[in-house]
Amino acid sequence: MAPKVGLFIPCYIDQLYPQVGIATLKTLEHFGCDVEYPESQTCCGQPMANTGCTNEVGPLARRFLEIFKSYDAVVCPSGSCVSMVKHHYDEYFTDNPEYEALKAKTFEFCEYLTNELGIDKLAGRFPHKVGLHQSCHGLRELRLASSSELRIEPFGPARALLESIDGVEVTTLKRPDECCGFGGTFAVAEEAVSCMMGEDRVSDHEQAGTEVLTALDMSCLMHMSGIIRRQQKPIRVMHISEIFAECL
């Protein structure tokens, strides 16, 4: 029986990049998932939590649980939003077995493809030099890839999936897991620092020969895409789900 998947779409994707949600849906359905998009879903509360408004997060956390608890899996094309659910909802639930079950079955999109569906190779062709940005939440809270400060065997399922696509050359960065500077409300409160960090990331991709910049988080790509447009850099920006959907 096909797994019943609840598709969890972040606010900025819903409002600004709906094509990313559609690409995620198409990819999951291609691999045999029975996907539903609960229209009653709301923001997970991450912006409020980032600014210290923790009381406002509680109702959203409880609503999220009620909406998604019945699915076999909850899948989201954003590491930061998944991290919010798995690592920052605990204070709103005390000894709640339904929430513990929800945490265990909530996954970032690439994580679900590789770890749960066992996908290790993608068909299709994408003849481009692709630069992979590793977002902070996915890297250091969800551990979706190895980070440079840890002396461990390198791993990275998203990179492996990209490299399995015919024609893809993943570019080599000088600083492969540095923050892009977005950081949610940090980009508003510390605009100058945020922009300088984003410019550093874009420059690293430019020197590496990146033609298509991708990531597991559209929020990071949104930040760097703005810099790329203003500086008129010849780099195309695509969420990783868009690349997968185009190949399929």
Total separate domains: 2
**Structural classification:** alpha/beta
Distance, first to last CA:
22 Å
Q: Which residue ranges are poorly predicted, with pLDDT under 50 across at least 5 consecutive positions?
A: none
In spatial order, strands of the major sheet run 2-1-3-4
Please count the helical segments. 13
Oligomer: single chain
Estimate the strand proportion: 5-15%
Q: Taking Cα atoms only, what radius of gyration do you get, to the nearest Å?
A: 18 Å
The helix-strand sequence is: EHHEHHEHHEHEHHEHHEHEH
| Gross geometry | globular
Tell me how many strands there are.
8
Mean pLDDT: 94
- How many strands, which pairing sense, and closed or not: the largest β-sheet? 4 strands, parallel
The percent range for helix content is 40-55%
InterPro entries: Cys_rich_dom
Pfam families: CCG
GO molecular function, one term: oxidoreductase activity
Protein name: Lactate utilization protein A
Description:
There is one protein chain. A four-stranded parallel β-sheet has the order 2-1-3-4, with helices on both faces. Strands 6-5-7-8 form a four-stranded parallel β-sheet. The chain is of the alpha/beta class and 248 residues long. It folds into two domains: 4-116, no CATH class; 129-247, no CATH class. α2 (18-30) crosses α13 (240-247) and α11 crosses α12 (218-230). It is globular, with a radius of gyration of 18 Å. The protein has 13 helices and eight strands. β7, α12 and β8 (236-237) form a beta-alpha-beta unit.
